[in-house]
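quick one before i forget lol
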Amino acid sequence: MAVLDNLEPKQVFHFFEELCKIPHATFDTKRISDYCVAFAKERGLEVSQDEVNNVIIKKPGTPGYEDSEPVILQGHLDMICEKTPDSDHDFTKDGLDLYVEDGYVRARNTSLGGDDGIAVAMAMAVLDSKDIPHPPIEAVFTVDEELGMGGAEAVDLSQLKGKMLINIDSEEEGILTTGCAGGIFYKTVIPMKKEAAEGSLVKIRIHGLLGGHSGNEIHKQRGNANKMMGRLLYRLGKETDLRLTEIAGGSKDNVITMNCEAGVLVPAEQAEKVEAMTEEMKQIWLDEFMGEEPTLAVDYQTDKDVHIDAYDKDSTTRVITYLEICPNGLQEYSRKLKGIVESSLNLGVIECDDTSVTTQYLIRSSVESRKQQMREQVELSAIIAGGKGETTGEYPAWQFKPDSKLRPLMIETYKELYGEEPVVSAVHAGLECGLFLGKRPDLDCVSCGPNLLDIHSFNEHLDIASTQRTWEYLLAILKKCK
């Protein structure tokens, strides 16, 4: 028996569970894309699949809706893959281990992929139905949204007749998203030099942070382990003769970094000082977070009389300088939309090899000039540290559309169902609608979705009751599109 069999809406959760059985990390979407194609063919629906694995499925309108304007339902097929440090889950071959707890669907020790599997499941349930009144449906399932929006950039929208697009990629029920920030993916490379050295090697690990989505949850000011490590190393460097041997933190540029590890080599007589200062820094962080990072842990392990290749003093100083001065986190709130973040940066990944330390950023802003200014700040930080940077990808902001036909219809439907108006807002996260509008300026886009919490982390969970309400809301919208 399937884990989600007893949940409502039954068909939505059926398809969601089927999707969760298929590995579908970003850039590994062929299998889930093929599943969607087979789904369409089994039902005699028109389907197309492009070379990057985007899928478009079309279904005629039901009786009385045959000549209605088509509605586009859109979601993405890929998911962010995060797991607990002790998990042996292999995202390349293992399906997710789903379970239900306290009204939520979760995946054991991994992220859930509700972002954005629930959108695909809802669209499939509409496409599969025989008794849901709806206009012609054009379902667009894109790939590689999470890391660069490559699917949205590649998809051919000229084959779509509809202009009203419902993007089901928002994570808070009752909020209609009508705009989003633009983003820059930015990579810096700092050249490093290693040489033979000896001393006591202290390996430091910062972990147990909550992490989360670097757009939707950046305002919560959660700890970024990469920046925290830079702060600790800077303090240690002022008091000891340290040299860095390695550093690595984070896995995705759009995930607030939950862990970072570094090795420092110091003279034997300074090892205890490194340990004491690390303990002191841990207490400072606990005091600063005031209980909002309850599982924060800072560990270290010391090996004496080590002979190892370490970065030279100049390289060590330059990379620590970079990590200490480079900007990160929330920068500005919107001056027009109360409580909405305008601009932020996330130092998501640090990697190293024998010749360089590399970092990956995601820079976000709904104001283009501020986005470029933050890029310049990151670039200048790299230059000061003797490195260089480059933009590896970019996507536009989604601007509010005053003359929308879809938005008032969705507001009216929400009021009829729940007796109150939804919140109409913009989101700091990136959404594919900005890229779609670049291809088709005539599109009328609104994003919505059920409550989905702690996305982009192994704590991700989907609200079952909210999914039921969002499904009923979607059906009511489609019924009105006659």
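fyi The first helix runs from residue 10 to 20.
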